[in-house]
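[09:14] KT: can someone run the structure on this one? pasting the chain below
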Amino acid sequence: MSSTSQKHKDFVAEPMGEKPVMALAGIGEALGKRLEDKGFDKAYVVLGQFLVLKKDEELFRDWLKESCGANVKQQGDCYGCLREWCDSFL
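[09:31] RB: done, structure tokens below
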């Protein structure tokens, strides 16, 4: 059984709406600020990138590392969060 954070559970429990980028699992204040500085200010903008990359885990992880310096755990948390959200709402 995999373990998910409360942040992850809260995010995937409802539609995304206007949630800030820092609402995504794995994205804290520092990474969130870096993403915001690159125009990724809302969770749905990161979702758009996730979809442009065709939900590909390796491509998304690489993008997240390059765009904001996310470590392996942060990459995995964010990917899992968006993947589960898509499975529930798309």
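[09:33] KT: thanks! The chain has a mean pLDDT of 95.
[09:34] RB: yep, looked fine to me
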